[in-house]
Amino acid sequence: MAIEDDVLVVGGGVAGMTAALAAAETGASVRLVTKKQSTLRHASGLVDVLGYADGDLLADPFDAIDDLPADHPYAKVGVEAIRDGLARFDDVTGERYRGEHTDTNALLPTHGGAVKPTARYPASAAAGLASDDRDVLLVGFETLTDFDAPLAAEHLDAAGVPFASGAPRWPSRATPGRTRRSRATRTPSTATRTANRERLAAHVARVHEGEPRVGFPAVLGEDHPAEIRAALADALDADVFEVPMGPPSLPGIRLEYAYRDALGEAGVHVVRRPVVDYETDGDGRLTAAVVERNGQHVPHYADSFVLATGGLVGKGLDSDRGGVREPVFDCHVPHPADRYDWFVDDVYGEQPYPRFGVVVDDDLRPRDADGRIEFENLRAAGSVVGGHDFAAECSGTGVSLATGDAAGTAAGSDTQ
């Protein structure tokens, strides 16, 4: 039996899920194929649009869009696509996120004590804004070595945040691993959850000196984070917030669940299988992505396709001694022939390799080495698109939202 859809999206990260939602909104039937879990569970849960330009911290990312190079993804899709992508994100997350009321970047403390500019942030982190001058007490756990609360406090003080911060660490038998496994095994009873919170609050109360804000690492529950924060806030008579953490990230996992629910509500079919080949009509159009299922190769046919598999970090691009390639549809990835030209010796210098990716036109269609469109009905979105350094710019999620929304809308519209 042939598997046919209007739009097929390859890739399950923010760009792919956004593209699938945008395509579904046009009325198209949509299938999303991904070989792995979303990379959101490895992300902080913060949504960056543009935090830095030429190394300078940006207060308003939209002020700098017009000055970006012509090959930057934002220059390809334009400001309105960025706003459309953010609006779609706001629809997915609802009250679980903050920042939609302003274009200005918020400044959030991270688990290492750095201050990060971001356009959207979890409601659970809202009381921790670095621009808030109220004093903070940071609390860590001895079993959670990823968050050294005293060191984070020292770094925040050195960064010149406008508040004083103390930082005790408390022993805890409840490790992050146990917390994260609760969904797969069982959810603790209400009585158990209440007892755990009371014990934690009693520990913190011993050193709490009336600081109006208390920050914990972002491990306060996968299923009931708001309830847990509210209980601790009542017990401590302070605003309680979570500090974004590295992978695996509970805020990222919560965001993944929100997207998963949105895909289900939109009627998007999700297939967790690898794409191993593709088919064309021999006249410049893709006809199918071939998916491996139980040792068999199964064509998934569609009228339009979106490539959103990620960049070098997300394994959407392959690299070896022979060069850099896009492995799904064999799209052209420009890069120096000499591997020693992929990087510069200055570790803090502007590195070439983060900008590797497929070259797209203004409709996000990948182009070959001669500048011709690879496939008329293929668009690219997210980190697989070249021309930006998402780590240096703090632009990763914003690029995924903007290009994902634009690619998905165009792909869906083409089928109507």
From TrEMBL:
Residue span(s) of domain FAD-dependent oxidoreductase 2 FAD-binding: 6-399
Pfam families assigned to the protein according to its UniProt record, in alphabetical order: FAD_binding_2 (PF00890)
What are the annotated GO cellular component locations? Answer: glycerol-3-phosphate dehydrogenase (FAD) complex
Domain of life here? Answer: Archaea
The segments labelled Disordered in the record are 167-195
Amino acid composition bias (Low complexity), ranges on this chain: 185-194
Keywords assigned by UniProt?
Flavoprotein, FMN, Oxidoreductase
Q: What is this protein called?
A: Anaerobic glycerol-3-phosphate dehydrogenase subunit B
Q: Which organism is it from?
A: Halarchaeum acidiphilum MH1-52-1
